[in-house]
Amino acid sequence: MINMIGKNNMIYKRVKSNGIFVLLIINALSSFGQNKPMIQSGASTIYLREQANIMGHAFLKGDYQTFAKYTYPAIVSAMGGENRMATVLANSANGMKTQGMTFDNITFDSPSKIIKTGSELQCTLQQHTTIKLAKGRAVATSTLIAISKDDGKNWLFVDTSNKDAITMRKALPNLSEAIVIPPQQKTAFYSF
Q1: Rounded CA gap, 89 and 18, in Å?
Q2: Which fold has domain 10-191?
Q3: What does DSSP assign to residue 135?
């Protein structure tokens, strides 16, 4: 969530300096069998969208413990656990506030086709984060990878944070070859 801002602005530099990029350091995840496309399940998609919204609203409210519960476990572990992750995110958000920036809104597009790979369901969805700035707002779009290990009842998320598919497959060896991660979009800035 935090790593959605372009490299040429203070938000990116602030986020990078707080070590949020550690979120994407994931080492040993098991590979599973063949990738098989799955018919888009209505219930799975509903659960996915509901849980993405819960995660996004928790982030906006500063409830980083809840946010961590929707984050892929290897990322939480790489951050030192839920408590450490919550502390890092809170410190980053507080640092942004001192610079006149706050997270204002998070929305999600419809998910891509859900893919069955091994024992997981996987897909992507676009996330749009609005940040209030002193003299305007910024809207950052990023891609989340959504993963379910229980046939779509519960979903966990990984922000691709300016990473391409090759990099993400190194971090998530079980990521289906059918998952497409589009190039990072530039952050849009709007003045008041």
Answers
A1: 9
A2: Nuclear Transport Factor 2; Chain: A, (3.10.450)
A3: T
